[in-house]
Structures are given as C-alpha cells and as structure tokens.
Input
Amino acid sequence: MGKARTNGRGLGAAAAGTPQSPEAEIYHKIHVAIAEHRLLPGARLVEDQLGEVFGVSRMRIRSVLHSLARDKVVTLQRNRGAVVAHPTVKEAKEVFAARRLIEVAMAPDIVRAADDAAVRRLKDHIKKEKKGEHSHDRAFELKASHEFHTLLAEIVGNRVVVGFLRELMARSSLITAIYERPDVSSCSHLAHSNLIKFIERRDAEGLAAAMLQHLHQIESDLVLFDRGEQPTDLKSVFAGS
Amino acid sequence: MGKARTNGRGLGAAAAGTPQSPEAEIYHKIHVAIAEHRLLPGARLVEDQLGEVFGVSRMRIRSVLHSLARDKVVTLQRNRGAVVAHPTVKEAKEVFAARRLIEVAMAPDIVRAADDAAVRRLKDHIKKEKKGEHSHDRAFELKASHEFHTLLAEIVGNRVVVGFLRELMARSSLITAIYERPDVSSCSHLAHSNLIKFIERRDAEGLAAAMLQHLHQIESDLVLFDRGEQPTDLKSVFAGS
DNA sequence: GCCGGGCATATTGTAAACAATATTGTTCAC
DNA sequence: GTGAACAATATTGTTTACAATATGCCCGGC
Output
C-alpha cells in the first residue's frame, strides 16, 4: 500500500477519488452506471461487449465482473454470464436492517467526530441534493442522497465502516431501482438537513432517533411484499410487460 | 441463486457448510489456514506453488487470491504477488471499532431473536471453547472464540450482517496473530458464558454493556502502539530480527 | 574491498486460441 | 398444428504460451 490506497471497498475507489489502475477505472465506471440506474437490475453484462466498449481484453472485464459480484451488485451464473443483481425482497429487508443497525449506532461517533469543517461539508452536500431535486433527475438525486450517508461514515473516519456503508449504499441503489413506488416524493434533503441539526447540537440520541426514523421512511417508500421470493431474473421481463 | 447459496461472504461458505465449487473449496481451505494461524501475516502465496498443492491451474488460484484480497486477508502487490495480509495498528483499531459498533448494536436483536434452540446452540459452542482451552491449542481456541461471535450474528439471521461479521472475524484473527501479547490468559469462554446469561435474561442493555466490555478486553490484550504506521510489510522482517 | 551495471531466474500479467455449455432456431415426425 | 429432437450460434470457462516485471547473483571497475 503505497500512499492513499484501498480507502474504501472494492478496487481503487468506488465513489470518490481518481482510479488509476486500468481495470479499477472500468470497475468504477460500471459501479457508477449501476448507481445512476443507467444499468438496471437484470441487465446482462456480456464480456465481449464490455471488452469492446472499454477497449480491453475479456480477461480484464472478467476480473472486474468478479469484483462487482463480490460487492453483490452483479450476479454471476455459471456458464450463463453476469447480470446486474436483482435483490429479492428478503435481501432488501436485510440490507435495510443492516443500515439501521450500523447507521443508527454511528450516531454517537458522528457527533463526536463532526467538527466545523465536517458540518460545512455536509451542508455543501445538501446544496448538491437540492440542485438534483430541482433538476428532476431522479438518478442524480438518488445518488446524491446515498452519498450523504456515506459522507457521514467518512466523517467518523473508520475505513472499515466506510467500506460497509459503501456496499450497503450500492445495494440500496439497486433495491430502489426495483422496488421504488412510482408516486414517491422523497425530498431526502429535508430529512438530511434535520440530521445535521442534531449533529450541530451534539445531540447523539436525537440523531440516532432521527436516523432511525429516516431509514424507516425510506424503506416504507418502497414496495416490499413478501410474496413468492426468487423471480429468477426473468421476473424482470414479466414486470416490464 | 438456486438453493441455499451465498449465505455468507466471499465464495461458497467461509466458515461453515460444505463448499462444492472447485475453487470455493480452495478459497475455504486457505481462509481456514489463515484463521488457524497456519499461514501467518506476511507469508507469500505463490500461484504456481498453490496450484500444485491443490492440483489446479494457476488461473483458479489467481481468482481465489483476488477473492481473499477482497476480504482483506491477503494483500496483492502488482507484479509482486500475494502475501497474507499484515494489518497495521491503525487498521487493527478500525476493525475493533467496527466490531464494537456492530456487535454492541446487535444486542437488542440478539435478545429478540434468541429462542431456546439458539441458546442451546450457544451453550454447546461454549463446550467446544472449553475443550479447546484444555487442549492448549491456541489456534483452535481462537478460532472457536471467533466462531462464537459469528454465531451471535447468525442467530439474528441477517445474512448481510453475518457477512460483515465473518469479514471482521477473519481480520481479527490476523490482528491477533500479529499483536497478541505473549502472556495472555484470555479464557474467552468465561466472557462468552457471561454474555449468554444476559441473553437468557432477555437483558438487551446488559448484553450490550457486557459485549462492549468484552471487546475492550480483547483489544487491551493486544499491543497496539501507534508508532510509525505502515511497516510496508517488511516491518515484519525487522520485528523478527 | 566496495559499489554499480548487467545478466539470469523466478514470478506475475496478458493475450489468444480452444473447449464446454447454454440458448435459440429449425426441421422432422406424428 | 404440436411436440420433441437436432443443429447452429453465442457466450462463457479453461488452458496454453508469451511478454513484462521484479529480484538476486555475478562480474568488472575503482
């Protein structure tokens, strides 16, 4: 580890930073494409095609796909290739349960670690979220919203936890793509501004409560019915027709 | 996902279960070898050698090493191969901070989810720990101790969290291998029995407090000085001479 | 005797060719 | 006309050989 390496999860840097390794860049680009809902759950990721798109050999793509699979954002099927992951309802609930567990528990650490510069960074990010909301670009809006949660972990400064959060946010992005109800209003920046208030007051308990409520709100904006399980990926086709 | 797949982290199953995929087995074996301290931090993992040992091609080994690198139990250096990871002091502290965050926060969920069968499983595991302690096999003892913590997560039943815990336990194993002071007495089974008492009483707060104290105890049994940072892996050589 | 350059070796990185497999389309029998 | 068997295609899995790189050794110069 030479300088500022492996500060997150996966190859290079998943959300921020400048990937320099040849395949780290591809990893990053696909990751972002999925986070921005340009690649939707169920989309096939053919090695040859991706290899041509990025001008590299299949082998590189293969390696990248394995890394993405480890992040649970793509699913590998033996002899059948890779597809963008399609989280089940059960998986979705588990991801949100994990988020509640970790993000709520972080509250005391956040309050402790958040200095003036950190609060300023958070407020700057809120501006970004508002801008995204005005532009009515749902993908950008959602990505910014997820970045806020990662940012909170970054303030605490524990790279292990940041890595967990990155993974959870990536999976949340997929879950939202699948299960979001069409009539959402969200306005996540309001909830986030609320969280910042508690941080400024150094109110850890209040922050924890607000975070818990926020996460419940997000989950209740989804349609997570428990019927049937496992659409086996072709459910997505049926869902489209 | 056909039947009971991807219930943990990484390939196949990291700690329990029967790996059937050809390279999942190798992944599992190396993982266990590291957890049992048969492979120590800094040990080189040459592709050809491993390929011959397991009777497979280099490519399989390569894939496995990448998976292990993602788990942070091995470190990949470009053009220089793979070595068993050598966590820094900073990394070690972050891992333990993450464990405190998650394992303490799990307390209410554990109390809620622990039925009679679960408590029995925990008590059975304690027997295993005691046996390990009598045999004076430090490696076995430590592995059993880590399994207890994973078991707690499994009782809650959230596979995402179980995955996180598995990763944290694997890294804890490496950290212990490096930083354990020689005069430890540990007796983890006592602390674990204590945790079970709180679970039986359905005392979430008590469990949380006991868990926090237990984790602090484990960390204070290590020698985590903050000098110098980043040994770049050759610190291990210096440490030996 | 010590330092530096250059060669030899070991190991990993990469690419290309080949084999195995799944999917799709077609044809044939009934 | 329907169904199953078969062939064709597309895609992944695997092996092989080759290139690039780092490390250690040896030798010559000073």
